[in-house]
Design a protein that fits this description.
With 198 residues, the protein is mostly helical. The protein has one domain. Helix content is 67%, strand content 0%. It contains eleven helices and no strands. It has helices at 3-12, 20-26, 32-41, 43-49, 62-69, 72-86, 96-109, 122-128, 131-137, 143-150, 159-197. Helix 6 packs across helix 7 (96-109), helix 6 (72-86) packs across helix 11 (159-197) and helix 8 (122-128) packs across helix 11.
């Protein structure tokens, strides 16, 4: 399936990637599999239930699509990178190489006043994407987290700076994951060589 088709499918049925919290709240009487079946047959009703305004899809963004379709662990990793860039003084789970990359980008963008200590990093994602994209993208995260976030007015940050931040982070997260996968393969190959020599 092409990226355009994947984007259109996600746009039309973003709830397929919804965090389970959203199903519990909107379709609480049904088990999750029955709720997902219902969402396939009751498209308009489901869109209303998730507060998604029907509209034509915006132009697809390759990096954003990769983030959308990624597992929750990868999405959390991306948000951790953004957090480290904007709040380098806070502890994080990144390795030294990742932290150094974040520090370099932070020096260029100077985002240290974009988030207060208590702010959710999702605020920057919400501020970057269009409202129509956010209506769909927010379903990927826990409903309580999104509800708390949506009570706050998004930060007024220059669109070009947000674009630079997110494009860089989304691209680099793919590279970090590729490097990690290669490292795991190298370790496995080394282990196989040692095993065959024994």
């Amino acid at each position: 399936m092409s990226e355009g088709e994947l984007w259109a499918r996600w746009w039309a049925m973003a709830w397929k990637q919804a965090h389970p919290d959203w199903y519990d709240a909107e379709l609480e009487a049904l088990p999750i599999e029955q709720a997902r079946t219902l969402t396939r047959s009751q498209h308009a009703r489901t869109g209303r239930a998730f507060a998604i305004t029907p509209c034509l899809p915006v132009e697809p963004d390759r990096a954003l699509l990769h983030f959308i379709l990624a597992p929750a662990t990868h999405q959390a990793f991306v948000l951790t990178l953004v957090d480290c860039i904007c709040r380098p003084q806070l502890p994080n789970s990144l390795c030294t190489t990742q932290q150094l990359w974040c520090q370099r980008l932070s020096k260029v963008l100077r985002p240290t006043d974009w988030l207060a200590t208590s702010d959710d990093t999702l605020q920057l994602l919400r501020a970057w994407v269009t409202p129509a994209v956010w209506q769909r993208l927010r379903l990927s995260f826990a409903r309580s987290r999104v509800s708390a976030l949506e009570l706050i007015t998004p930060h007024a940050i220059a669109a070009l700076k947000l674009q630079s931040l997110w494009q860089a982070v989304l691209w680099k997260s793919i590279k970090f994951n590729e490097a990690a996968a290669t490292s795991l393969l190298d370790e496995q190959e080394l282990e196989d060589v040692v095993t065959t020599q024994d």
